[in-house]
Specification:
heterodimer; A: mainly beta; five-stranded antiparallel beta sheet; 0% helix
């Protein structure tokens, strides 16, 4: 059973701070990693994807991947109240198979 | 990014009736579409994977005779909830992916309420 683990939270951070969201996965053969944001009552939207070890930055978002530790994270700099949402980690084991989603971490940015 | 639409966005029906939900990729051809269900305060649960022109692959515990999936073209997949009951009330979300790309693009979801 391929698993993706996330702390469900809520994770509360003050406005302007860095929010750090973490995710671990069980399938060592996983190749692609995604972060989705889901607002309450809405469907997920893709924020970032990462394939290689290291960091990938896009605006205020940085995805970090460590395949040896089977760990992927998302950093949100200068957090805003509009960033308050549930963040889903998703892992693809390759071969265009289904993606496995974590339970999601609820982020609350306090003004 | 690629756009995926769903119709209807919400539906209320009586117990025992069937409901059809459409999922369309508007500006790309989706070789694979996925159907998810999400209950309140829970994560996405994959129901089935649908490839164009072939039978859907259902996840364990999902009744294929109750949740009928048709993927007749590269831009359209449908989910029919047959003989719906109140416990089928949920948020149904489809997603689509293109061959050679890993990203899934999600539709806006359909909220089903069965009375």
């Amino acid at each position: 059973q391929k698993e993706v683990e996330q702390n469900s939270g809520p994770l509360s951070v003050p406005e302007g701070a860095i929010a750090s969201l973490n995710c671990t996965y069980s399938d060592r053969g996983s190749q692609s990693f995604f972060w989705y944001r889901q607002y309450s009552g809405k469907s997920p939207e893709l924020i970032m994807f990462i394939y290689s070890n290291g960091d990938k930055e896009d605006g205020r978002f940085t995805a970090q991947l460590n395949k040896a530790s089977q760990y992927v994270s998302l950093l949100i700099r200068d957090s805003q109240p509009s960033d308050s949402a549930t963040y889903l980690c998703a892992v693809d084991s390759g071969g265009y198979q289904k993606v496995t989603f974590g339970i999601g971490t609820k982020l609350q940015v306090i003004p | 990014g690629a756009v995926v639409s769903q119709h209807p966005s919400w539906v209320i029906c009586k117990s025992g009736t069937s409901v059809k939900i459409e999922c369309r990729s508007l500006d790309f051809q989706a070789t694979t579409m996925f159907w998810y269900r999400q209950f309140p305060k829970q994560s996405l649960m994959l129901m089935a994977t649908s490839n164009e022109g072939s039978k859907a692959t259902y996840e364990q515990g999902v009744e294929k005779d109750k949740f009928l999936i048709n993927h007749a073209s590269l831009t359209l997949s449908t989910l029919t909830v047959t003989s719906a009951h109140p416990e089928d009330s949920s948020f149904y979300i489809c997603s689509a992916r293109v061959r050679n790309y890993n990203e899934q693009f999600f539709g806006p979801g359909t909220r089903l309420t069965v009375l």
